[in-house]
Automatic annotation (TrEMBL):
One of its GO terms (biological process) is RNA metabolic process. Endonuclease that specifically degrades the RNA of RNA-DNA hybrids. The keyword Membrane does not apply. It comes from the Eukaryota. This is Ribonuclease. Belongs to the RNase HII family. Eukaryotic subfamily. The keyword RNA-binding does not apply. Transmembrane segments: none annotated. It catalyses: Endonucleolytic cleavage to 5'-phosphomonoester. Its cofactor is Mn(2+); Mg(2+).
Length: 268
């Protein structure tokens, strides 16, 4: 997932409106590439992108204290604003394509950066040329990253005919079908927390990962062990009855018991 920003002098706004920037989703790939090159060559415009890989997104969205996509998006936008400010750019007005409620998002941004005026709107990438330029920078960066993607996995059948990456694209659905694995899920190109993945794993293998770590939530005796069940590419809080004793802190996982292994946190 890629977020982008474009910045320029307020006096350049009228000229910016003549550069034919538009919502990247309405442009063909060739048009986006051409506009992006012209954007990069324009000394009156600056731009930045924030690239978040699928593995990082999955880690944030599937951990015990989950971070949803809205919050990830907000944090990315605020990170870009901070980066531009730290470069010494004096930001007077910032236009943002909303994620979630526009007014709540605007309030959140204003509290974070009280000296900046924020305009947050739905479909801002089709309303404000500066946001259109940012969407082009983000989209082209994403497309190029996919074209040059190098798989961590080594299966011979992997291919990059991924389609657009949107849920309704038949090519994207076919790619997911071609690359699903009943135990390991998908290659790291895929965000495992993506709802579109779930239908592909109705018959997936349930895997229980046994852990000898102290439960992060804490217990009365402070020594409980826990087990996590990986099911349908997501973590669940359910335990099988036969595992309750081992996970309650009264006993140890059989794997560790059989090998007389103890958890060591400090070395002398």
């Amino acid at each position: 997932m890629v977020y982008g920003c474009v910045y320029c002098a307020c006096s350049y706004n009228n000229t910016l409106a003549t550069l034919k920037f538009a919502d990247s989703k309405t442009l063909k790939e060739e048009q986006r590439e051409e506009l992006f090159e012209s954007l990069k060559a324009n000394s009156s415009i600056g731009w930045e992108v924030d690239v978040i890989c699928p593995k990082d997104l999955s880690a944030k969205m599937l951990k015990r204290s989950k971070v949803n996509l809205n919050e990830i998006s907000h944090n990315s936008a605020m990170g870009l604003v901070r980066k531009v400010l730290d470069m010494g750019v004096l930001l007077a007005e910032v236009y943002v394509d909303t994620v979630g409620d526009p007014e709540k998002y605007r309030t959140k941004l204003t509290e974070k950066f009280p000296g900046v005026k924020f305009v947050v709107a739905k479909k801002a990438d089709s309303l404000y040329p500066v946001v259109s330029g940012a969407s082009i920078a983000a989209k082209v960066t994403r497309d190029r990253a996919l074209r040059n993607w190098v798989f961590d996995e080594t299966a011979l059948s992997l291919h990059m005919r991924t389609g657009s990456g949107y849920p309704g694209d038949p090519d994207t659905k076919q790619w997911l079908e071609d690359h699903k694995h009943p135990v390991f899920g998908f290659p790291t190109l895929v965000r495992f927390s993506w709802g579109t993945c779930k239908p592909f794993f109705k018959d997936a293998v349930d895997v229980t990962w046994e852990s000898d770590e102290v439960d992060e939530e804490g217990t009365d005796n402070g020594g409980a062990k826990r087990q996590v069940k990986l099911s349908s590419l997501g973590f669940t809080g359910f335990k099988r009855k036969t595992e309750d004793i081992e996970s309650s802190g009264k006993g140890r996982c059989k794997f560790f018991q059989a090998r007389k292994l103890e958890l060591v946190r400090k070395f002398q």
